[in-house]
């Protein structure tokens, strides 16, 4: 299982939110570049980055930060937030981003997901963010009438290989991952599943590994010191491929 430490960008700074509420944004690090370097030094191979401004505005806002991290950190970078067109996807991949995450468009424009997967294969991931099992879109500000399992099955049918699942109610809360929903998701589809939201300790890493998940995203727990990133990577038995 791979560990993906997270950097969320809002107003060009590294922040964390609680349950996706933009009003709770607080800075957790001075520099995204120094933070990425520290993740690499801890042994990370991947980094998960989110354009919070982009997710809200429906278009990329902080592209230059992600591209610089991809170009200079030595890490594989996956990016999500406000990516709604083939032009944007192509631009990110041309600039060295390893994997592009499509979120809201998976619900609102599934044909774009199919086209992107057809052209770029496993460089496309879908982020499924849910509250009480129902998918939320537009930076988690809008609730849909689609369940996370139904959307996952539709994405599998579209050829998606990687799904990032976030339980919004746990994100930024240090309350533990939702093993029940993650287990159901991993059983429902053949896609690689990355857990996101609620990681608080090594136990969460072990729980995700026991579920045979592909990856686990770690955010607030790393910044608060509740989770030792190097130890998490060691316990996950991370493979760099």
What does this structure look like?
Helices cover 39% and strands 30% of the residues. It has helices at residues 32-41, 52-57, 63-72, 86-94, 104-108, 110-120, 148-157, 179-188, 202-210, 220-224, 229-236, and strands spanning 2-10, 13-18, 21-29, 46-51, 76-80, 99-102, 124-131, 134-137, 142-147, 162-167, 192-196, 215-218. Helix 9 runs parallel beside helix 11 (229-236). The radius of gyration is 16 Å and the shape is globular. The relative contact order is 0.15.
Features:
241 residues; alpha/beta; eight-stranded parallel barrel; 12 strands; 30% strand
Précis, in short:
By secondary structure, the protein is an alpha/beta fold. The protein is built from 11 helices and 12 strands. Helix 9 runs parallel beside helix 11.
């Amino acid at each position: 299982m791979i560990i993906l430490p997270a950097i969320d960008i809002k107003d060009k700074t590294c922040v964390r939110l609680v349950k996706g509420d933009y009003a709770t944004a607080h800075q957790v690090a001075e520099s995204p570049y120094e933070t990425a370097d520290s993740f690499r030094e801890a042994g990370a191979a991947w980094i998960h980055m989110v354009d919070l401004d982009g997710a809200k505005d429906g278009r990329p806002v902080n592209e230059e930060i992600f591209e610089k991290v991809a170009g200079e950190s030595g890490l594989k970078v996956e990016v999500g937030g406000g990516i709604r067109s083939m032009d944007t996807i192509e631009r990110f991949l041309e600039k060295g981003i390893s994997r592009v995450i499509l979120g809201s468009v998976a619900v609102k424009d599934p044909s774009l997901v199919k086209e992107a997967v057809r052209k770029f294969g496993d460089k496309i991931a879908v982020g499924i963010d849910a509250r009480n099992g129902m998918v939320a879109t537009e930076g988690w500000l809008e609730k849909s009438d689609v369940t996370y399992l139904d959307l996952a099955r539709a994405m599998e049918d579209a050829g998606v290989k990687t799904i990032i699942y976030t339980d919004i109610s746990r994100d930024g809360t240090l309350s533990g991952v939702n093993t029940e929903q993650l287990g159901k998701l991993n059983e429902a589809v053949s896609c690689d599943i990355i857990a996101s939201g609620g990681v608080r300790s090594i136990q969460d890493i072990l729980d995700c590994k026991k579920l045979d998940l592909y990856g686990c995203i770690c955010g607030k727990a790393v910044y608060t010191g509740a989770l030792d990133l190097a130890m998490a990577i060691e316990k996950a038995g991370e493979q760099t491929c």
